[in-house]
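From the shared-data thread, chain only:
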Amino acid sequence: MIPLFALVLVASIGQASDQELQCPPPLRDEEQKVTRAVQGGYVVTVRRKADPALTKDACVVEVRGPSGQVVFTREGYNTRLHADNGRDVDNDGTPDLVIGHDTRGDTRCCWEYTILSLRPVPHVAGTFSNPSFEVDVNRRTVVWSLLPFEDLGPDLAPAPTIAVAQQYRDGRFVEITSEYCAVILAGTAKGWANLSEDLWQLEGSRRAASRADTARPPSFEVETTRLSATTVALQMMYCGLDGDARELIRQVWPDDQHEKIRASIEAAVASARRRY
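Structure, as tokens:
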């Protein structure tokens, strides 16, 4: 049986999502707007500070308990509730708040989302960069993060990434990407971990064209192929398939670039492993 608390919280979260609960833009001619959502006795407020000249830390998200006490707050360039707010992320049978704040105001990053569990008392269960969520075969939430490496891609292009899976087990979030490596690298994973487009970019003739292109800079088509190859090689190496990653590098880049590309990907994977 689903607890009454959960039913109330889910219903109110659905109402909050319709309100697009996020920090409104600064308005010089109007009163700064405050948006609230009441969720199972908790109130979430997302607002801008009164000073219209503020940019850094101009937005605030605040959670108050049933008695009005502040139990959580964050500031940033922007603040909001995640679209999956209300999902049971920590798998304890009750919905959680998924609260985001933008730490840098950069269009290519840097949203950080806090999982605030409300039972038995409000507490931070985990923090993630730009997470997405799905459920496994046991109906338990899996949290996906895309770890970007902007220095490995061209300017103004999507950064190469590593998909990382985590799940709340035994009182904490643990990294479980190895359980999904086969489907990720087959291009059949769901959501952000799906590499089907990158794998399509690496069909045989594209690999050969990229390997033969020694121009600096390369053509747009070759640059696109190499960007996809970088993402796939990163994921291969993170999944422990170093030999497959080295072979992909050999097939996609000219001979004189192999060592440099391999070293940069190895360094990126090492940094990802230190993080998780």
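The first strand starts at residue 34 and ends at 39.
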